[in-house]
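Please annotate this fold before class:
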Amino acid sequence: MKNIITFLLMLLSLSSYSQTINIKDFNGKRVSGSYYKDADFILDPYVGTWIYSNGADTLKIKLRKVIMALSANNSHEDLIVGEYLYIKNGVEKINTLNSFNFDYAAQRKHNITGNAILESHHRPPCTSCSPNEKRLRLILYEPLSTFAASLTIRLITIGGQPALQVFKWGIAPIGRTPAEISLYQSAIIEIGTDFTMIKQ
């Protein structure tokens, strides 16, 4: 009986949306009241703790999936959120991991967020991807520098272990005009950097 009630409540919540749209079909235009759903569970393999280590440099990223997060235009979306630790030359540059489990009213306040599904031809193009291979684009925010950049993430396997090929690109100052950019420090994590990250 409990399962039937749970199922009916789930149907009722879904019926309250004007439209359910698969996130892989999202065209960039949000429809008010819609639910952008990870219907094919594309986001699930990205969940976990991932580490890049090279000598005295370390990048640790923790990612989790949020279901039906509140979004723009009174819509909801399935979303990857996360936080990170970056050590350069043995010096900790930034650590936002203590915010990982925090549930914001707007989950996109996390320092890593997104759910954009990329095909191989999408920017930046992936010449080594198979024709039907999907990638994920997330936004990484640097609260110390007030810069944000795109992370293009590809699922790979290394030595039988799940891994990510992560490329940071496309930096933009958050809330800053071009004239103000020079007043602020440059990105903490270098633009154009590739990281191969192993799942822990």
The helical segments are 2-15, 178-181. Confidence is low (pLDDT under 50) at residues 5-15. The longest strand covers residues 57-70.
